[in-house]
Amino acid sequence: xxxxxxxxxxxxxxxxLSAVALSACKPRALKIDSIEVVGTSLKEFYALDEQIDxxxxxxxxYYSDGTSxxxxxxxxxVTGFNSSITSENAIMVITYEKVSVNFSYSVTYxxxxxxxxxxxMVKKEIDGRKTTVSVRATGLSKSGPVYAVRMIVxxxxxxxxxxxxxxxxxxxxxxxxxxxxxxxxxxxSNDGELAIEEDSIILEIEATRASKTGTLYIQSIAVSDxxxxxxxxxxxxxxxxxxxx
Length: 245
Description:
Layout: H1 2-25, E1 32-37, E2 45-47, E3 58-63, E4 68-72, E5 78-79, E6 87-96, E7 99-108, E8 118-127, E9 130-138, H2 140-143, E10 148-155, E11 159-166, E12 171-178, E13 182-189, E14 200-209, E15 215-224, E16 229-232, E17 238-239
Parallel strand pairs: 2-7
Antiparallel strand pairs: 1-3, 3-4, 5-6, 6-7, 8-9, 9-14, 10-13, 10-15, 11-14, 12-13, 15-16, 15-17
């Protein structure tokens, strides 16, 4: 009986010693001293609406034991980056394992832009030489409410702009035509309280081509939030040729 007790005690001691040994062998997580952006992997100057290239963006991580490693920056590590408006010496923050570093950047465009609102054109339908184009409003989730939009629709000389129709209920459209290749438009809320909806079709343009191809442009865009007017970048030029997008 005494022998069994002694063996049991020895077994407990052996297990305890093994646990201590394993614990001693287990690597400890290294403390991060600091991080820094690697070289030019982040840009100091971005074009309007340009995004970070996360395949190239990297930081160098410095550990408390003097070692370091380079890792890729992911989107979830970045706060404060906004290329939808122009800015000078704005600050984005990169955070890795609760350690952060600030990085200064600027967003440039030909004119100051202080709204994320954008206009996009998409071909909706093609019937012979006639093309119907949808005009979409985007960026409202970032820009805040928009109650009025001003723009100029233009075409190349081989395209006739036939008509522009409003697709937002509760709004009014005014049109001022300059020949058949240009029309100035104003869209505004009837009650001044109804705002344009995010990612909504606000207009449809019908145009006729004299040849297989032709181009539409939307320029001189501005919006109002009810108190201030903001310049908006020109929309994408659109080839209204034979293939629907």
